[in-house]
Design goal:
Structural class: alpha+beta
Largest sheet: 3 strands, antiparallel
Radius of gyration: 18 Å
């Protein structure tokens, strides 16, 4: 199974209803190559790459599939799927931290570059930490 990611490892998702905002997976490298070619028709070339999908639990790339476990979209290898079926994997997904809301954020290219560098491929986590720190600092005043 393959995915298309940014060169910095950034996860590429879709806003289409049928993908539910999740990362799009491709069964073959050829499917991913065609999708990348189509993506690069509307985006600059060289910003994206094809990667093997990794198990969300152990990082393995062999024999992974994507599916829904309850409400959670997961990508798991055969070993971790077996553990999940036997109840040995534990809870799937990040623990609920609150309400999710979508926002659009306009920043200069320099600011986006800085944010991407600091976020190390996970903008949501980084921004969550920045907001939490600002909130906690404001509460202590």
């Amino acid at each position: 199974m393959f995915v298309i990611r940014g060169k910095n490892g950034e996860i590429i998702t879709s806003s289409e209803i049928e993908t539910d905002g999740q990362e799009i997976t491709y069964r073959t490298r050829e499917e991913a190559r065609k999708a990348l070619k189509e993506l690069e028709r509307s985006m600059p070339t060289g910003f994206f790459q094809i990667e093997e999908a990794k198990c969300m639990n152990c990082g393995e790339t062999h024999n992974v599939i994507d599916f829904y476990s309850g409400n959670y979209y997961v990508i798991l290898c055969a070993n971790c799927r077996q553990k999940l079926a036997m109840g040995q994997l534990g809870k799937i997904g990040r623990p609920s931290m609150g309400t999710t809301k979508k926002v659009s954020l306009t920043l200069s290219d320099d600011m986006w570059d800085w944010l991407d560098e600091k976020a190390e491929g996970n903008r949501s986590k980084f921004l969550r930490e920045v907001v939490a720190n600002a909130y906690l600092n404001n509460e202590s005043e």
